Every structure is written in structure tokens, then in C-alpha cells.
Amino acid sequence: VKCRNNKENLNFVKSYSPKHPEVQHLKILLNGPVGAGKSSFISSVDSVLHGDIMCRALTNVKLVDGSFTKTYKTYRFLRQSDPNNPFGFSINDIVGLEESKGVHINDISLALKGHVKDGYKFNPSCPLTEGDEGYNPSPTLQDRVHVLVSVFAADNETILTKEMQKKMREIRNIASELGELKGPAQTDGKLIEGSFTKTYKNYRFPRVSDPNSPYCFSINDIAGLEDRQGVHVDDVILALKGHVKDGYKFKPSSPLTESDEGYNPSPTLQDRVHVLVSVIAADNETILTEEMQKKMREIRNIASELGISQLAILTRCDKACPAVADGMANLYKSKYLKGMADELGDKLGIPPNCIFLVKNYEEETRIRDDVDAPILCALRQIISSGDDFLTD
After folding, report:
1. Parallel, antiparallel, or unpaired for β 73-76 and 90-93?
2. CA quadruple 298, 299, 303, 304: dihedral sign
3. What is the CATH architecture of 6-179?
């Protein structure tokens, strides 16, 4: 596979428009195990299209007497040339988390939603309530938090204690449910406690030149598959058929039913999935467990019955192969990765020319042509395959 012509592939992606009159944008569904890199791939696509790293995907001082910050404070930043015209962003500081005290999780949740007034003094003994003077009963979009940033000290003996990790995961889950803090895609790196994606989310990609005119494809993120829990196979099948409404929150205990609010009883061709992409992490000890293979084959069989195009992506190739970590030019030269792709193809029944190797943007602060190339190569083929489904 040659993935060198970035300009040609990028122009193809940017100029693509579905030929079918009933479809405004091609709908791509990412499917795969928890932690495979589905959400990271969405963020990487967004970075490639913007020409800059989209730092909206959250990746998962030694105080003696607790947090020094006591109040909820909004900081604006003034221009030297015009102090009356501050920069178009602000930063809010909040009381620090501590294992046994510090700010209440409920207070942070209220702050995310815009219910905490600027200047509110936190009470260590009890969280803010609706009757308090510092409570904002009717927050506007301006009052809400738009980006959540976690700040850590690198010189701590332990980067995160178990109790602190528990608190921060709870905050991240709340932020995820609000669906406003990290888009386009929310990721959780190597997950320990299941999928971080909780809702069925359709991601559109706005053009830099015209944000009101997004590109003519979208990618749907779905909760990850797990051996014994995770998203139900039935929910994935319903998503393929267009029965799952955007924003539906998956329930680990039961799949979506016709009586649920998140069920779309009359899906159009636009609601349906046009191409299914299986996403697998290349750096796992076992590429697919037997149970995972069984679930993914079941999903693929239904997709085949529906005529949906299918491809696969192997992510984290730089983590799996030291030669690729040394240079992306080695990506498709690696015998180890070729062996993994062949194994994946055998287990899922996907032909070799439909399996793509990528490295997602995770640690970089600037985009790189050699990282863009395989992402664009995969994206172009995904779009072409999905368009074939629409024209058949």
C-alpha cells in the first residue's frame, strides 16, 4: 500500500460529495474493542483536515495544607495594545482535588454545567446547593465550561493515587455525558474500567474555510465491545440499520428497544450506516480474543446481509513495532505488522487490501506529513467503499 500522495488524497476527501440524492453525507461507523483507538482516530482525522492538532481529546505542587485556591474564579487576559478588549478565551480556577477533602465532585459537576457563579467560595464541609447565593439557576452556554483540562505535577512520587484516579474518572464520565468538553472525540487511552464512550455520537467535520459547510462524510463513535460487557451486539446491529438516534446513551444492562426514547422507528437512508470500519489496536498481546472475534463476526455478517461496505484499521502501530516508532516509512515494510494484519483478516474474513495501518495523533503537538499519509490513505478508501454502497 502506497500512502504518499497526501495532497491528492486530501483533495479527494475535501471534495467528496455523495452521488445519491437522498444522502447529504456518507455515514461511517467505527466498531471494535474497548481502547482500540476509535475515538483517537476521529480526532486524528479532524487534525489532518484542520492542518493542526485538535487538542480536544482528553488523555487520561505538593501541598501540605490543602488547596490554596478557595473560590471559583474566572481569569480574562488583557491585550497590551487594547486593555478594554480582552482575548477571546478565559480560564477558570477551582479548588484542588484531594483524597480525603478538597473540592466536592458535585461542585465540579455544577461548574461544568455553568451553575457555579464567579467568585463563589467553596465550602469544604458541603457542596453547593440550589438555595445557595453562589448557585446560578439558569446557566447560558456562555456560563458553561467548554474545555476541561486536567493538570498534574510531574514531580510527584505517584502520578495519581487510586482515590484520586477514582475522583478524576468520575469527573471525566460527567464531562463525557455532557458531550461538550473534548470533541470531536473523547478518548481514554488504555482503559481499565471499560469503554469511555457512553453515547452514540455522530461527528461532522467543519471546513476551516467555511465552518457552516461541513465535509460530506461523518464518523459515528460507539461504545467499545468487551468480552463480557460493553456495548450489546444488538445495539451495533440497530445502529447499522439506522434505528439508534444520535446521542443515545448505551445501557450496559440491556440493549435498545423499540419503546426507548433513543429508538428511531423509521430510519431513512441517511440515518443508516454506509460503511463499517473495524478498529483494532496492534499493540495488544492478543489481537482478538475468541469471544471478541465471535461478536465482531456476528456484526460483520449482519453488515454483509445489509450490503454495507467493510474495512479494518490497525491502530497504535508505532507502539506495536519499534521500527515504526523509529520512522513511519517502515509502517508497511514491517513483517510483524503484516503478520498481524493477515491474522486479523483470517479471524474476521477481511481481505488484506481492506486492512489499513495507522498511527493516531496522541503525543504530537504539530501535525506530520508521515502521520497524515496513512490516515488519509485509509480515509480515502473508507469513503470510496461507502460511496460504492450508496451507488449499488
Report:
1. antiparallel
2. negative
3. 3-Layer(aba) Sandwich (3.40)
- 0.90 surpassed by pTM: no
- What dihedral do alpha carbons 303, 306, 307, 313 form, nearest 10°? -20
pLDDT tens digits along 238-260: 999 999 999 888 887 788 999 99
Cα separation, 294 vs 292, whole angstroms? 5
Q: What is the pLDDT of residue 97?
A: 59
Query: Any idea which fold 199-391 has?
Result: Rossmann fold (3.40.50)
- What are 74's strand-pairing partners? 92
pLDDT for residue 285 is more than 60: yes
Q: Which one, of 167, 172, 169, lies nearest residue 98 by Cα? A: 167
The pLDDT value given to residue 375: 95
User: Could you state, in order of their start, the residue ranges of all structural domains in the chain?
Assistant: 6-179, 199-391
CB 208 within 8 A of CB 143: no
Are both 6-179 and 199-391 of the same fold?
yes
- pLDDT confidence bin for 101, thresholds 50/70/90: low
